[in-house]
Amino acid sequence: MTVDALTDVAGVRVGHATRVGDGWLTGTTVVLAPEGGAVAAVDVRGGGPGTKETDALDPRNVVQRAEAIVLTGGSAYGLDSASGVMAWLEEQGRGVRVGADPLHVVPVVPAACVFDLGRGGDFKARPDTATGRAAVEAAAISGPGVRVREGCVGAGTGAAVGPMKGGIGTASIVLESGITVAALVVANAAGSVMDPETGVLYGELFQGRVTYPEAHVHEAARRRLAETAAKNAPPPLNTTLAVVATDADLSKAQAQKLAGTAHDGIARAVRPVHLLNDGDTVFAMATGARPLDAEHPLALNDILAAGAEVVTRAIVRAVRAAEPVDGPGGTWPSYEELYGRR
């Protein structure tokens, strides 16, 4: 039984750490690989990324597997949360062996951040090592194949998509081959996720599942968004982050191709994307449980297409699961507050 989430890829677990109130509106999300790690890659296309350990994922370099991937709020400050994840993994003896003692390991923990500084009211309220540790511990104690919380949790706590509230979303698909492809997204985009003329989410237009809002509802939503955008400080940096995971047996080069084509899923749901003030980054993870069909050299194509599809769906779910925020750091209505569930 699948739950339409990243955790449908067997062995992959997700944990959130969320901080709200008293100036806080931020958090960290950890994607924990099965023990022994997963083949991992990354594709960074935004002009203003904040990342850690992404060079290690280059197929030309020696590292083959990552133990976890960290998505975090707090802009570059929030990358400190990855240190908390590394410390926990070291205690478990998980990482690249660097000595005779099996406990002498260096965990490979790539990370990327979104900008949410000050959205809770306190510019200095951002994730740290303790936040990262809390997120990885939450991932570790979660059961296999469990549902993943969506909306304003973890790295999506302070996320915004244009003038609306953003958040975390996830989705999965099982191919005819039996291979699972899934995505988890932090939607925090400078671009818009909806058609300004109709109020329909771009991602839903792509999926062909559209119910157009009534004209008076859309006009009221446009007025509300214009008012809140004028009140809020302009967002200097925004980013959409994604982790695309599969149980297919991929090389690092194939995983990097998956990360690259998955950006198409962002482009279908957010317009414009990959700007100079975006940090759009997609990670790919492959657990290797299911081999590709060796007799069909283009077997990877189905996985590539599915990766983009689940990213689009995950962005839609992130926006629909988001809850409105009205606090000292700003006001962000949610899509469903404005338009209702259709």
Can you describe this structure?
It is a single chain. The protein is an alpha+beta fold and 342 residues long. The protein is built from 7 helices and 17 strands. It has helices spanning 81-91, 129-141, 202-207, 215-231, 252-269, 300-321, 335-339, and strands at residues 13-21, 24-32, 38-44, 51-52, 65-66, 68-72, 96-97, 105-106, 111-113, 160-161, 164-165, 167-174, 180-188, 239-248, 281-290, 325-327, 330-332. The strands form 5 sheets. The chain has a 6-stranded mixed sheet. α5 packs across α6. The longest helix has 22 residues, at 300-321. 57% of the residues are buried. The model has no long low-confidence stretch (mean pLDDT 94).
Oligomer category: single chain
Radius of gyration: 19 Å
Ranges with pLDDT <50 over ≥5 residues? none
Give the DSSP E fraction (strand runs of 2 or more residues): 25-35%
* Order of the strands making up the biggest sheet: 5-3-15-14-13-12
Order of helices and strands: EEEEEEHEEEHEEEEHHEHEHEEH
Helix content: 25-40%
E-strand count: 17
Count of helix runs = 7
